[in-house]
Amino acid sequence: MYQLNNLFDNKNMTMINQLGQYRVYEHQRDLSVSPFSAETEYFASQMNVKKRQVLVELNNTATKIQAGAMQWTIGNVSMKTGVTAGNFLGKMVSAKVTGESMAKPEYTGQGFLMLEPTYKHIIMLDVAQWGSIVLQDGLFLACDATLQDKVVSRQNLSSAVLGGEGLFNLSLMGQGVAVLESPVPQQELIQFNLQDDVVKIDGNMAIAWSGSLEFTVEKSTKSLIGSAVSGEGFVNVYRGTGSILMAPTDK
Length: 251
Fold this sequence. Notes:
The protein is mainly beta and about 250 residues long. It has helices spanning about 40-45, 90-100, 155-165, 225-230, and strands at about 15-20, 20-25, 50-65, 70-80, 105-115, 120-125, 130-135, 140-145, 150-155, 170-175, 175-180, 190-200, 205-210, 215-220, 235-245.
């Protein structure tokens, strides 16, 4: 038996989004300030620089989170790492090439799990609507344990060498919700929905894309001289049928 006081009725914490078992809370002001940092914190809150936290309500369900992201749990909640002697090496290699943590602790049971506060923006996606989704390095925060995660490689070496996206990325597939840490708020993200079409992006600005899309890096024009003259050089190209989430600025 437990009680939670000064959480759901905390006037300084506003729930700004909810999907599935996940709720996103935003601290309207940072109240733990000193006289020397108060001015900075005030203007930060005015510019939407705020701490955000994800609360997971487990109802005989399970979630996988980024290692080290747990702040507290309450209730009948248990954790396992999913790392065994048999898969230790493979997970270590996957973590090295994707920049993600080796273990994604899985919490299951009935109760609440609160994740650590972050100044990044929280994006929640229904992965089933994407079929499968490929994430830019470092975006993963949590997901339903019903989702499968695996490392996917580029279809050609040019995508890794020239595209700035790396040779390997984390991919999620199945039925469930994915929670991401985005460098920009969801209101700024541009979503491209392709049907046998193509999108060309100058720079490492796509934060997530459908696993069904072919990603390559190509010259902006047919000739190297033309690419050099245009000032664009090489661009990231996504072809096929699927969706892309793009940040308007490279933060």
